[in-house]
Every structure is written in structure tokens, then in C-alpha cells.
């Protein structure tokens, strides 16, 4: 890359970083921010029906849930733990991790260190001399990279990232949507190269510490944090990430993520699967018509969920950690429907 381009990118990065991290007064007066704990309140005081929340609690308990939270207007109105769990119990949340990796990428986009439409090969030299040079950062974040999806034995590899980076192209980038763990894991390398820090360390410094998250750890494979799974976290700390997105990237008057990135990540990223954003599941006329159109969620195996409802100023978290599939999975639509039906005003 010519020196002049390096200089322009560095200058752009400095300007964008200053804008992204500048103090903001966007939050509504009276916004409740969690400190070391979350404030709690009665459901009725936050415009919710206690009886209907109890119906949600009973349903989640019947599905072997371990941790569940409902937060409205910044206050906990429902919090339940079962099967030996407590507010301090961190659980694996599987593919919820993808949405956190997306957030790391968003921070780097905000600072100018990544551009959505630049070649991923800028950070993965082995891709520069073959057809993978057409893959962009946007393709990896939207599950449209076209990399071969062959997961047999992948989870047992001693170096999963090495295999991810060696995957051949199967389809032209941008022509096929496929939920692809192997392709997603390439973002671990890209975040590391763009930030100069390992993915888990970058998230600790730029996301977890500013939000007061103390429980988050990330599984490593071959010495590297996985980008597609491996986050372990408590329900309360996961809710903090949802609350950051609910407030459009602002946290206690400071800009952690740009509002533009929050919008970008949580709306349809392509037309092949318009229910998918940048590693977030989104809602529109193509999916779950009963859900609020601006709602979105992070989804993990066995029914680990972080659901964000901006128009309702509500977050719902349901964690089971390592489940066993049905009947331990919840019907996500039913769970969300019960939470939404509890809103009275």
C-alpha cells in the first residue's frame, strides 16, 4: 500500500477515533446507568405486569433455563436463577460471541482501522494471490464470503484459525448467504492485525472495561481467541452489551460505538438473507412479523439469547450455557412474546 494511502488512513483514523470517543449527551434525561450493580424496580413501576412476567418466568423455568433477566427503562424488573446458578455464574453463550466480535470490528471501523469494503486480504496475505482476494470485511460480517463451509472435525482442531484461513473459496463472494463458523473465525485474525491486539485483549480494553464487565472470558484455540464462539459471561454483564446497543453506542455520556455502526450492524446487511445484519439477527417484514421492527438479537446454541427492544426500552436475556437441545431450548418467539405482552405502558 503506498505511503500516501497509509498517511490518509492514519489521518482518517485519528479524526474518526476522536469523533467516536468524544463525550455525548444523547441519552435522555433520567437515563439509569448500571454501576457495579443494576438497579432493580417493581414491574409495575416500569410499566409492566407482574403476573405476565411470572408467566415468562414459569415458561423459562420449565425449559431448564439457568439465568434470565428482563430489564426495562434501565432497571431489572425480572431476574431468575435456577439449577445452581447465581448472578455471579458465567456461562458459555456459544454464537452470541459472533455479535461481540462484530462489535470489535465496529470499533475498528469507527476508528478508521477497518473499512467494510476493503479486501480481507489486506490482513490475510495468503489470500492476496488467489480468488479469495475478492472477499471483503463486509462479506465476512454478513456471512456472504463464499468460503467453503466444511465443519466436520473443525471443533476438535488444535488450531481452528489456521484451518479457517486456509479454506478455499466455494462461491463468488456476495452471491450466497451461508451461516459459516469457519469463515467467521477469520475475523479473529483481522481484528488482531487491524488493532495490534489479540481479539480478547482488544475487547477487554475497548468494550468490557468501559462497560464495567468483569466476568467475560473467551475460549482460546491454538493460543487465539475464537471469533465465532467461546464467550463466557454472566447474564447481567451480557445485558450491559445489550444496553450499550439500546443506547446507540453511548455509555454514561461517553461514545463507545458510533450510532452509525449500531444502525449498520443491526439492520439487514444484504438481500440474500435480509433477517441478518453484521453478525446480529434482525427483524423486518421477512422474519418474525410479530416482533418490533427495530428489535434485534444475539443467538447462541442451546437457546442462549440476548434480545434488544429499542422502542420498548427493554432487554431480555436467557442463558442455559451447555444445554442438550430440545426440550431445553426455548421457543424464542414465545419467550419474546411473553415479555412483550407484559408491557402495559
Task: Kindly describe this structure.
It is a single chain. By secondary structure, the protein is an alpha+beta fold. It has a domain at 94-231: DD-peptidase/beta-lactamase superfamily (Beta-lactamase). Helix content is 34%, strand content 14%. β8 (250-251) and β9 (254-255) form a beta hairpin. It is globular and about 60 Å long.
Averaged pLDDT: 91
Which sequence of SSEs, written as H and E, runs from N to C?
HHEEEHHHHHEEEEHEEHEEEEH
Question: Whole-Å distance between the termini?
Answer: 56 Å
CATH topology of the domain at 94-231: Beta-lactamase
Briefly note the structural class of the backbone: alpha+beta
For the record, the CATH architecture of the domain at 94-231 stands as 3-Layer(aba) Sandwich
Number of helical regions: 10
Short description:
This protein is 34% helix and 14% strand. With 345 residues, the protein is an alpha+beta fold. The protein is globular, with a radius of gyration of 20 Å.
Amino acid at each position: 500500500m503506498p505511503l500516501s494511502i497509509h498517511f490518509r488512513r492514519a489521518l482518517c483514523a485519528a479524526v474518526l477515533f476522536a469523533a467516536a470517543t468524544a463525550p455525548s449527551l444523547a441519552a435522555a434525561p433520567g437515563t439509569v446507568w448500571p454501576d457495579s450493580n443494576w438497579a432493580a424496580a417493581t414491574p409495575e413501576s416500569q410499566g409492566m405486569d407482574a403476573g405476565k412476567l411470572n408467566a415468562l418466568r414459569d415458561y423459562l423455568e420449565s425449559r431448564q433455563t439457568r439465568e434470565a433477566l428482563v430489564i426495562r427503562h434501565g432497571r431489572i424488573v425480572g431476574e431468575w436463577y435456577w439449577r445452581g446458578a447465581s448472578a455471579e455464574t458465567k456461562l458459555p453463550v456459544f454464537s452470541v460471541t459472533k455479535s461481540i466480535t462484530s462489535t470489535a470490528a465496529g470499533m475498528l471501523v469507527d476508528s478508521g482501522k477497518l473499512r467494510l469494503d476493503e479486501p480481507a486480504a489486506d490482513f490475510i496475505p495468503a489470500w492476496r494471490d488467489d480468488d479469495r482476494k475478492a472477499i471483503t470485511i463486509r462479506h465476512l460480517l454478513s456471512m456472504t464470503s463464499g468460503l467453503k463451509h466444511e465443519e466436520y472435525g473443525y471443533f476438535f482442531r488444535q488450531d481452528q484459525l489456521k484451518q479457517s484461513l486456509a479454506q478455499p473459496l466455494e462461491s463468488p463472494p456476495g452471491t450466497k448467504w451461508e451461516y459459516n463458523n469457519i469463515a467467521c473465525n477469520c475475523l479473529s485474525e483481522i481484528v488482531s492485525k487491524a488493532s495490534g491486539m489479540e481479539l480478547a485483549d482488544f475487547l477487554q480494553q475497548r468494550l468490557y472495561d468501559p462497560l464495567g464487565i468483569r466476568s467475560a472470558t473467551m475460549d482460546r484455540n491454538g493460543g487465539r481467541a475464537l471469533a465465532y464462539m467461546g464467550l463466557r459471561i454472566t447474564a447481567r454483564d451480557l445485558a450491559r452489551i445489550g444496553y450499550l446497543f439500546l443506547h446507540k453506542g453511548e455509555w454514561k455520556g461517553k461514545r463507545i460505538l458510533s450510532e452509525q455502526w449500531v444502525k449498520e450492524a443491526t439492520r439487514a446487511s444484504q438481500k440474500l438473507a435480509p433477517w441478518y445484519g453484521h453478525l446480529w439477527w434482525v427483524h423486518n417484514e421477512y422474519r418474525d412479523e410479530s416482533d418490533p421492527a427495530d428489535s434485534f438479537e444475539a443467538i447462541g446454541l442451546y437457546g442462549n439469547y440476548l434480545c434488544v427492544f429499542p422502542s420498548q426500552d427493554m432487554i431480555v436475556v436467557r442463558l442455559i450455557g451447555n444445554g442438550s437441545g430440545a426440550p431445553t431450548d426455548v421457543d424464542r418467539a414465545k419467550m419474546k412474546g411473553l415479555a412483550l405482552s407484559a408491557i402495559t405502558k
